[in-house]
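FIELD: query
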Amino acid sequence: MKLHKTFFSATLLVALAGTALAQAGRGIHVDLKETRLANGLRVITVEDHSAPVIAVNVTYNVGSRNEKPGRTGFAHLFEHMMFQGSENVGTMNGTTNEDRTNYFEALPANQLALALYLESDRMRSLEVNQTNLDNQRNAVQEERRIGLDNAAYGKSGELQQELMYDNFAYKHDTIGSMSDLNAASVADVQAFFKMYYAPNNAVLTLVGDFKTPDALATIRKYFEPISRQPDPTPPDMTEPEQKAERRASVDDVLARLPRVAIAYKTVPGNTADFYALQVLANILGGGASSRLNQKLVREKEMVTGANSFAQETRGVGGFYITATPRPTFKNDVVEAAVYDEIARLQKEPIADWELQKAKNGARRNYINGLSGSCQYDRPVRCLLRRSESHQHPHRQGKRGHQGRCAARRQ
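FIELD: result
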């Protein structure tokens, strides 16, 4: 079956309360204490004695947006390299996206010193050799085969990013290309480690059952001897104004049904407009009671499913809509129906009950992310890293015309 995907630009006007999600944490008090070590490491501590556990997270200010042409996939490959262990100890969990790489663990409170030692050892002395590189390169390439190259709709998402963005920072997929991964050398990995895995390019967040003075003394013991490195050059995330529609098609033999995908360039995260877009995504395509699901799935029975979401990034973000047409409906008909629902948002006021429902859903998702020490730690350090980025206007992308994409079956 052929799957064709089409992209073009348009304008989406959003008229929502900009602070809808900014008050999501109302009633929740997080007693943050920030300390900066002599080598530049930012330390955030949050005492929480509700359970005898601690969570440690180290977030490095590096993601795929820092990569250069010909070296895609490095941030993600490096996360895998860190799983090989340092010179002394193996490791635990980590994730990578466009904007950051993080490593975290949750342990009983009496193992705080062990958790801090593990992360300091990782920051100080990565074990880099050809065997480790080859092992993790193969693992990442297999991950790409499973998640993109041999998955239904896998390549369409990658193409969407390529067409949506002009700046290389967000134009490529975090997992990288096969050829670039093959080109990675031990010297490349060592240089990447020295540049980005430095205390002055990281935030350590500690949440849980501990006494702050004692915890800070242990943190200083393990982390302060690690040498500061020159500050990396901030990546350019600006986007030129998009003036024409962009469309492309993907022939996907693995897709059993076509898919319509629409993407709009929006704004950086942790801004009033982003939170308004997050609420808008719930209204338009967030769950079974959303407008797209009520109109296209239940009433017209045009699609098997539809959804929308707002992606939060430190540069120009994205607002994404997808719909999977039923075999009896053409893609252009489904595409037009989606735009009809967008037009309704532009022309008609949103009812108070619907807006409140969308806000409640966004708040619920946020609060659910605070359950448990590791989950509680995640929004804390993410918000802190994002707030730091907005102190530097040159790191924020310019808001341009939005982009749409659609799919067509032949």
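FIELD: remark
Residues 202 and 356 are 38 Å apart (CA to CA).
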